[in-house]
Design goal:
A seven-stranded mixed β-sheet has the order 2-3-1-4-5-6-9. It contains twelve helices and nine strands. The chain is an alpha/beta fold. The radius of gyration is 20 Å and the shape is globular.
């Protein structure tokens, strides 16, 4: 009997510890790097719900889900590692209702950006302004599910807000071949980045006003090094497009200042900066150290030296050794790369994630 009581008590404390260490909800915002299927429900030219996308995504049996990679996104992996029992459901999916939303919701959209004009080449996409509008709908639903005071506690103490956005504002807006030449003549890089930062400040403050307190914000990666940019600019394997990377670094410096400003001015909030640029650049430059055979060629794609022109689809050539490619398609990392990136965000030091890593943020 004593043994039984001890066992019951041990199990109780174990379960309590698991609940305490588990993440309540993961709210994911951004672009195709973390879209889990929202674009499936839009009439858009940017879609990933076609094979072979998702070929290594175990939860779907290898069927495409709308994720722009062969397996899990960084958002998926981080949620799992932080103790989330289910992936955050896409906001536009029919099952994103009731108690499902207490695990989190994914608002990200392929082609979306900070600025509303970004991604118009795709016809439809959900930009950050609309994604924040959508969260306000979720926020009211959580009030109904938990009651106002518990809902506020759940959102502020047990939820993490992950935002991966900004790359499209350059790739599918300011740097867009032909279509953007007018914008570049009329607007300097400084002025364009000012617009991005000013819009982003408003968007993050809106989330704060809806009780978001734990934020992780990814900066823009080395977009001049993706297979698409290397292919259309006819670069060598070890070259990257200088202008694209220079703009990313310029924006990243301003983003760092913005997050420091928000940490100072929004009481109780913690804004964590994920240094995606340096993380991805490390993988690109030292790919062999991590077990990859290439960081310039897309595993799934067509066109040019690095299979970087035509997005991944049923008629694409596809590599056999998917876990040995840094890039799944002309734009997006493979699941193997996402696993390495996620590990650094979860447990890494200040080089890649500051002032806290994601485990520390969860336990705040």
């Amino acid at each position: 009997m004593v043994h039984l009581i001890v066992l019951v008590n041990l199990n109780f404390y174990r379960n309590a510890a698991a609940q305490k260490s588990g993440l309540g909800a993961s709210f994911i915002f951004g672009d195709s790097l973390v879209d889990a299927g929202n674009n499936n429900y839009l009439s858009t030219l940017s879609k990933a719900n076609i094979p072979p996308n998702g070929i290594d995504f175990k939860a779907s049996g290898g069927n495409p889900t709308g994720r722009y990679t062969n397996g899990r996104t960084i958002g998926d992996i981080v949620g799992e590692e932080l103790g989330q029992p289910n992936f955050a459901a896409p906001f536009l999916a029919p099952n994103a209702t009731g108690k499902t939303i207490l695990y989190g919701v994914n608002y990200a959209s392929g082609g979306g950006g900070i600025l509303n004009a970004t991604g118009r080449i795709f016809v439809n996409r959900i930009g950050m302004d609309i994604q924040v509008d959508y969260f306000s709908i979720t926020r009211k639903q959580i009030d109904k599910l938990l009651g106002e005071s518990k809902a506020k506690q759940y959102i502020s103490k047990q939820s993490i807000f992950s935002i991966t956005v900004g790359a499209n504002d350059f790739l599918n807006n300011y740097l867009l071949p032909i279509l953007s030449i007018g914008a570049r003549i009329s607007q300097s890089p400084d002025s364009f980045i000012d617009d991005m930062i000013n819009h982003f400040r408003v968007q993050l403050t809106r989330l704060y006003k809806m009780d978001a307190r734990k934020f992780v914000i990814g900066n823009v990666g080395p977009i001049g090094c993706i297979p698409y940019q290397k292919t259309i600019n006819q670069l060598n394997e070890d070259q990257c497009v200088d202008l694209a990377n220079k703009l990313a670094l310029q924006y990243n410096a301003r983003l760092k200042d913005l997050l420091a400003e928000l940490n100072d001015n929004l009481p109780g909030a913690t804004f964590v900066l994920a240094n995606v640029y340096d993380l991805v650049m490390e993988l690109i430059q030292n790919y062999d150290k991590y077990g990859f055979t290439t960081s310039s060629r897309a595993c799934c794609g067509n066109g040019g030296q690095f299979a970087g022109i035509i997005p991944c689809g049923p008629s694409s050539s596809i590599c056999k050794d998917r876990y040995k490619h840094v890039f799944w398609d002309p734009y997006h990392p493979s699941e193997a790369a996402n696993l390495i990136l996620a590990k650094q965000l979860l447990d890494g030091d200040n080089r890649y994630i500051s002032p806290l890593n994601l485990r520390q943020l969860r336990d705040l």
